[in-house]
Every structure is written in C-alpha cells, then in structure tokens.
C-alpha cells in the first residue's frame, strides 16, 4: 500500500492526467479522466479534479478499481 501512495504522490506533484475506473455503491462502475488534488494517507481518500465534467470529488482507495497515467 505504501508503494501505491508513493506513486499517487508522484502523480499529484507532476499534475499527471489519469484515467480512473472506480465503483461506487448504488451508482456502479464509472470511468473519468482527472488529476489528483489531494492525498490523505490517514483516511485513505483521494481528492480528484475531473477534467471532463470540471468538478471535484473524493474517492476512497477501496473504491478505485484501476488508475493509470495517460501516455
């Protein structure tokens, strides 16, 4: 898990555009393109800026199915 948070911190510092696939309860599986604004290691939450809808939202680490940097 520490390796995951280290990679996330690198993406946050470099303002890397990411493709995130996540599953929310009662909503289902969704995908978006965004950037990490804030990383909370204590609470295991990530704050994202969604570039598609120009909105900000929070995801818990256990809700994330896949996260990759665009090449």
Question: Can you offer a commentary on this structure?
Answer:
This protein is α+β, with helices and mostly antiparallel strands. It has one domain: Roll (SH3 type barrels). The protein has one helix and five strands, in the order αβββββ. It has a five-stranded antiparallel sheet. The chain is globular. The N and C termini lie far apart (24 Å). The relative contact order is 0.26.
Please provide a brief summary of the model.
With 71 residues, the chain is of the alpha+beta class. It has one domain: SH3 type barrels, CATH 2.30.30. The protein is 17% helix and 54% strand.
Write the layout of secondary structure elements.
Blueprint: H1 2-13, E1 18-24, E2 28-40, E3 45-50, E4 55-60, E5 64-69
Antiparallel strand pairs: 1-2, 1-5, 2-3, 3-4
């Amino acid at each position: 898990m520490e390796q995951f948070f280290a990679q996330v911190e690198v993406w946050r510092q470099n303002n890397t555009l990411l493709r995130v696939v996540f599953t929310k309860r009662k909503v289902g599986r969704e995908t978006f393109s965004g950037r990490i604004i804030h990383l909370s290691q204590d609470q295991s939450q990530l704050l994202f800026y969604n570039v598609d809808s120009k909105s900000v939202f929070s995801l818990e680490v256990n809700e994330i199915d896949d996260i990759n940097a665009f090449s």
